[in-house]
Amino acid sequence: AAHFRVLSLLNNQRDIVTGLVSNGRLEAADGEKILGLFLNTLPLRLELSGGLWSDLVKQAFDVERECLSWRRYPLAELQKSGQPLFDT
């Protein structure tokens, strides 16, 4: 939440997109035994409403939770458009 707030202030924008690094390791039996780097970065977008800090924290938590189902979607696929994905 603080990260979004600082970006909002620095960019003078309420609509912020940042990168969320997520764990894409398989959640199957013995998944922890598979070698390799299973990190993925997803764009996380939040439009700050200008309320209380507690509201911003809840809003950021909700947006991050909604993003979890996409945590294994390849960043390379998103980058094919050639457009910038993140404000950071």
TrEMBL record:
<feature type="domain" description="Condensation">
    <location>
        <begin position="6"/>
        <end position="82"/>
    </location>
</feature>
<dbReference type="Pfam" id="PF00668">
    <property type="entry name" value="Condensation"/>
</dbReference>
<dbReference type="GO" id="GO:0003824">
    <property type="term" value="F:catalytic activity"/>
</dbReference>
<protein>
    <submittedName>
        <fullName>McyA</fullName>
    </submittedName>
</protein>
<dbReference type="InterPro" id="IPR001242">
    <property type="entry name" value="Condensation_dom"/>
</dbReference>
